[in-house]
């Protein structure tokens, strides 16, 4: 009898692990129904792969290191970019129909990339197309049993190593699974912020549980903000306006109509995401406004960016004729559960992959469209490894790690505002200390897992006194120069 493996999370990383672990039996756990509720499904831009003429993985690696402010694990970066072509081929083999023309894959461009290298599907609906195809495969795969609409409640340990998980189904009934290998692919923490592009399930529960179980964390202070979320009150996650729009000619403007990024970075609108997010933040913080002008794209919006067009129209804005108001929003966590290149955490039997994990590949600021690539490349690698490396036979747990109390809804709202103010694109020590004090003084937060996780994030940000990548502190004079540690390549004119 083969030993089952538990995979928690059904975005691109979890699905890639589950499919690649065949023939080992997999219990796949997801909060939503198959194909729903993951951040991967909301990803628009695509998958970065150096497939264009004149491009190669070394250039992709260099752009990844520059965007990451040189804080990246270089070995993992070089491995990641070397896997891009096979990741695309594998996804296509799973049924993903990437956009093509007579010369091959259509390649878009996003911030921080020196070349057109974003492979996409259904224009700007890449994440949805990938998750739908992988979920359809997983639903019919003989080795996968899918526990959908189940929430992870606890991790069982025996003598310090993983022994199983406890789940709750939609009716609140508890389900126990005994397994010596558990993979967390639970996504990021954006839902802890007042403005985010992430779905509500990206609340950091997987990260919090791993930390409670004793797993080491890494780089928790590095949180990426997307510069162009649509600035509207939709009572939930803010709709994302993909960077690929700027790659195709859209321009950020200030309230007076001037090009907002002009003279602020050699790559202008296509500067790395942390740089653009800070400039948009500063403009708005100074009482101004920021706008995405995609009018030059005209009818290309309907054919190449149907999601962006629909997002604008849903708010009564026609992006073919009108500018879109934008604001930065929490988008991606570079930090997470510290793992090695195979996804092994410091707790034996507990693995992590995708956004919940940190193997250092993204450094201090992720390069656009490297997250779907990371999910599929590292997910396949971990799945293939676990197919042939089952941990010692599971014994029943003698200790259960659970999250404990949830913060009450009103305190959670307070926490989201606190984190947006203190841990946003621009930070300072006083703001971080004030947020810590307010959490400590609010019993509903200090005793809840969300408050404990936020405290870890704030302490990590306070401990890093220099500015680096997405962690930008206004109160440290040495900061800005550190960002230039890796020289910006001499990009040619942006075509
Ligand atoms: C985007 O399409 O702008 C976001 C893609 C990403 O997060 O890399």
TrEMBL record:
Residues 472-495 are annotated as: Disordered. The keyword Lipid metabolism does not apply. It catalyses: L-aspartate + O2 = iminosuccinate + H2O2. The keyword Flavoprotein applies. It is an enzyme of class 1 (oxidoreductase). Pfam families: FAD_binding_2. Residues 6-372 form the FAD-dependent oxidoreductase 2 FAD-binding domain. Its EC number is 1.4.3.16. Its cofactor is FAD. GO terms for biological process: 'de novo' NAD+ biosynthetic process from L-aspartate. GO terms for molecular function: L-aspartate oxidase activity. Pathway: Cofactor biosynthesis; NAD(+) biosynthesis; iminoaspartate from L-aspartate (oxidase route): step 1/1. Keywords: FAD, Flavoprotein, Oxidoreductase, Pyridine nucleotide biosynthesis. InterPro entries: FAD-dep_OxRdtase_2_FAD-bd (IPR003953), FAD/NAD-bd_sf (IPR036188), Fum_R/Succ_DH_flav-like_C_sf (IPR037099), NadB (IPR005288), Succ_DH/fumarate_Rdtase_cat_sf (IPR027477). PANTHER family: L-ASPARTATE OXIDASE, L-ASPARTATE OXIDASE, CHLOROPLASTIC. Belongs to the FAD-dependent oxidoreductase 2 family. NadB subfamily. This is L-aspartate oxidase.
